[in-house]
Every structure is written in C-alpha cells, then in structure tokens.
Amino acid sequence: MAKTIMIVDDSSSLRTVVGLALKGAGYDVVEGCDGRDALAKLDGRKIHLVISDVNMPNMDGITFVKQMKNLPAYKFTPVIMLTTEASEAKKTEGRDAGVKAWVVKPFQPQQMLMAVQKLVLP
To answer: 0.90 cut: is pTM over it?
Structure first.
C-alpha cells in the first residue's frame, strides 16, 4: 500500500511540482492550500509525512504544525518545511514546533525525495 504525504502550500504550481515528484516515487498525495485547509483535511486518515510551506495566508506553516501536533493521530507525523525562509530564528521556531527537516526553495526534487525517504513513517 502506498504511503500518503500531505503537501501544504499556497502555490498551486509548487504543489503540482512536488506532487508529481512524489507520485512518480510511488506516494499518494493529499494537498492543502494553507494551514487551515490542511488541518480540515486531517480527518483521522494515516498521513505518513507532511511537507509544508512557512509563509501562507489564513494560517502559516509553523502554526499549522503546532496545531497538527496537538491532534493525537498526528502527534508523531514527521514534517518537512519547504520554504524560502532560511533564517536561523525561523528554523529554531520550526524545530521547537516539531519540524524534522528544512528544505529551502528553490530545491531539487531529488534532494526533497531523499529527505522524504529518510523521514516517512513505516
């Protein structure tokens, strides 16, 4: 059975690029257009990994991760931040929220897939 990865980004083109790379590697993909939309889609189904942007309207990525980690079903779901944010302060804030990896845009799909393979839950 394929593993499911959630992509949370307000850029539909980025969701498409990341989604194609993940689907090509055999993963199922669920998309959220911002943190609030993504939280609404966390309905108890198994999500093996989340890839999220930081800067989004309605709810930013760090707030989303904090709220997701409060849900018992997703407390241990690993998160990769895929963002233009490269400041140490943001990275520390992300780590404190439970983010496992930080990939700065622009990124190579292969680099992202390697991070995914390391972190995806069994």
So the answer is: yes
